[in-house]
Amino acid sequence: MSSTIKINTNSSNEGSIKVAFATNDNENIDAHFGSAKQFNIYEISAQSYELCEIIKIEEKDTDKTVGLLKGMDIVYFVNIGAAAAAKIINSGIFPIKYKEVVSIDEELNKLVKMLGQNPPPFIKKILEKRAA
């Protein structure tokens, strides 16, 4: 079982990416994929970012968690098991693992800047897929 909090936004999806952050404290990327209490979902463009959804994880089930993240372009976490990583990748979600705790705001600002300048090839591919 899990609960999802949807947040109404005024942003358009054009030129943006949808990113999930595994978090236990709502401020940092500080959770292992399999034990995250929630995923904060942001819509990110070259101009700004906006929180659009919070997915609370109440049952530890990798398949269900991956299903809840359907539609995400990228998911961040501090660790992940090999089977879960394969499921994420097979779902078309790009996984990003940090070895240490990182501020969500810090990462959001990096992504906005990256989108406004010269995004790496994997981000360009995501943008092209979303525009299609």
What does this entry look like structurally?
The protein is of the alpha/beta class and 132 residues long. It has a single domain, classed as Nucleotidyltransferase, domain 5. The chain is built from 4 helices and 8 strands. The strands form 2 sheets. Strands 1-5-4-2-6-7 form a 6-stranded mixed sheet, sandwiched between helices. It has a two-stranded antiparallel ribbon with strand order 3-8. Strand 6, helix 2 and strand 7 form a beta-alpha-beta unit. The longest helix has 13 residues. The protein is globular, with a radius of gyration of 14 Å. The mean pLDDT is 90.
Summarize the helices and strands and which ones pair or pack:
Blueprint lengths: L1 E5 L10 E7 L4 E2 L8 E7 L4 E9 L4 H7 L5 E4 L4 H9 L3 E4 L4 E2 H13 L4 H11 L1
Parallel strand pairs: 2-6, 6-7
Antiparallel strand pairs: 1-5, 2-4, 3-8, 4-5
